[in-house]
Amino acid sequence: MRGGKNACTPATGGGSVAAAAGSLDFSKRDTAMLKGVAILFMLFLHLFCRIETDGLYTVFLRFQGYPLIYYFSIFCDAVVPIYCFTSGYGLFAISLKRLTWKDNGLRVLKLLLNYWIVLFLFAAAILVMGEPEKLQSVSAFVSNFFLLRSYVGAWWFLASYVLLVLLSPLFLEMLKRVNVWVVLALSLGLYCVAYLQTEKTCSPCKVLFGAQSCRPFKTWGERSSPSLLV
Fold first, then answer.
1. 11 Cβ partners below 8 Å, 6+ apart?
2. Cα separation of 89 and 84, whole Å?
3. For residue 205, what are the β-bridge partners?
4. What letter would DSSP give residue 117?
5. Cβ pair 200, 183 in contact under 8 A
6. Per-residue pLDDT of the chain (230 residues; tens, 9 = 90+)
């Protein structure tokens, strides 16, 4: 971490989250580098998180009969947490000076404009290829326009991100008034509950739920895949 005029350095305070973050110094350059790492993680995850590699690339190293690179790609599934961290840190640093609902609304609008451009280009490409049925219906397109549905699985996080950004002034104001250890404990508890709820097929949860497969160890488009715990 480094200082300078571009550094996002939260101010100090009492025992709150703001006080705990007061000694941190995370610059815009650090954020850009971290986002770059996340992009590389995303590419690695989508390129190599698969078992069937015939016609795609040659595998030289295997573990338990599966491509070794497949196991490494699983750990690249940290893309969303990295972007959540960098965005949250930036919004938190801004909130110590001035963060309004209007500012966040403009941020979301700028993001949505880029998304809508991609959506219309996607729809145009589908029509040019003569496959309009893939757009399903007008209502389906409208639902995609307002992030209620998604033609592409990789777009799933956009709606969640928009909600987090819009609600960030409320969340951050609450965090400034709460002890940092309470925030960490609540965050960990919520994470565990959400993980158990959404990942009931994860191998560590087999004892609790009797599941037979593990989502984090599934390939893109595959129904099952090897587990590191086997």
1. 18, 22, 96
2. 8
3. none
4. H
5. no
6. 444 444 454 444 445 555 544 455 778 888 889 989 999 998 988 888 888 878 888 888 888 888 888 888 888 888 888 988 888 888 888 887 877 788 888 989 999 999 999 999 999 999 999 888 888 888 888 989 998 888 877 777 888 888 888 888 888 888 878 888 888 898 888 878 877 766 554 444 444 444 443 444 444 434 344 433 33
